Amino acid sequence: MKFETIIKTISLSSYSLIILMGQMIGIPFIVWLFWTSFGFGNNDQVFAIIGLIGLISFFTKYFKRRIFRILIFGLMLTPLIRRLTEIPIEKFNYLAFQIPLIIFITTFAILIFKPKTK
Q: What 3-state DSSP class applies to 86?
């Protein structure tokens, strides 16, 4: 398996495994994206749709170009940043959120900055 495929798998898995804690239980971020994108009248709906566009773009041919990787990374981070600014930062002080987020950011940065192989 190619290095890029492994890193893409790790990046996507960690993005999907980010846990957002609710009042009773935590839900995976990917579930929150789909749920919120169809929740009409919700302020987070636009950001969830932007995140889904980034997630879908992750699988397109445009992902091969560095400029689009940076754009896709921004699209995927937008709903996370929205959640971080909407809710007090103390609510995100748990490892089920922090570890997958750090892995996602690190692996996606590797995908962005790795040299192109011919």
A: helix
**SS3 assignment, position 115:** coil
Query: Is the pTM of the predicted complex or chain greater than 0.85?
Result: yes
Residues with Cβ < 8 Å from 19, sequence gap 6 or more?
Answer: 26, 27, 28, 29, 94, 96, 97, 100
Q: How many Cα atoms are found within 13 Å in the side-chain-facing hemisphere of 15? A: 27
pLDDT tens-digit readout, 48-107 = 999 999 999 999 988 888 899 999 999 999 999 998 898 888 888 889 899 999 999 999
Q: What share of the chain is helix, strand, coil (3-state, %, to 5)?
A: 70, 5, 25
